[in-house]
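User: Predict the complex.
Assistant: Input components as received:
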Amino acid sequence: MPTQLLFTQFLNAHFASPVTALLRAVHVHPTYPNTPITNAFAMELLVFLFLIAYFLVVRVTLSVEKPAAAQHLAEMTHEFVSEQGESIIGHGSERFTSYLTALFLFILLSNLMGLVPGLESPTANSVVPLGFALVTFVYYHYHGVRSNGGAYVKQFLGPVWWLSWLLFPIEVISHCARVLSLTVRLYANMFAGDLVTLAFFSLVPIGIPLVFLGLHLGVAVVQAYVFFLLAAIYLSLAVAHDH
Amino acid sequence: MKKLQYLFMSLAAMLLASPAFAQGGEVANQWVPLAAGLGMALAAGLCGLGQGKATASATEALARNPGARPGIFIFLILGLAFIESLALFTFVIIFLKVK
């Protein structure tokens, strides 16, 4: 029986049997049928609910004359993301702003969650970053095909046709390695951050671990930014036209 | 003098090594923490060297041309992330292999 956070316990107490039934229906057998909901999933759900509530609040209190605090925050986020998108992707980046904003905010909140007592980072579980990476992978390939059509294949074939048989497998592997590196970077950073704090907590239980919590705060923000930046760069490479 | 030093160093290494050869497979795991520590130390040290080089060049470029700040910043963060991920790969491998 894995240790459960308060919110996970609450979810498992109320939704354990339908979730287990649902998992059985798709031929997945959870290790613990009484508690099929993991901490990572519960925390993700929490982030999801929080973000939905935030967006709803922003949408409801939208006003031109008297912008509220939430609207200022949303405008700052939007300005940041669209500025970055404009400088990386260039013309036509408005189409991707919504996805990039959602990705950035979700990862940022998930990372920062580990700093709150009673919660933990869902990104410190390797499955969650893998999900982000796979969604990004599918998304940029979809937009690559959408904006370049059949000519998107040319990006995989290299500059000269007689080397394409060699370059095609290399390019395919490098695209798959992007998923791996995105996953491992986010997961290992968050996991190592938690572990370092824990290690120093076991050495000195007072004061010193706070320094590493501060370091973890910085790492959390930077890693969210790096994930967002790499997603934007992959998008820009995929939608680029050869002239 | 130098040769003697090498001789004693290799002798010391062999003295350390011989019990391990004698005992065989049952204590093969005794080297795992050592290997994990050394591997992580190597990865961290070399990653630190690489990141130091990257940061030094970035600050130099920034001092020469402060106007290029946004472009340099993006490339610096990207480069640091890529260098750092190498050390993190080591960390993950160690974490997977050490039980």
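The radius of gyration of chain A is 21 Å.
Let me know if you want any component modeled separately.
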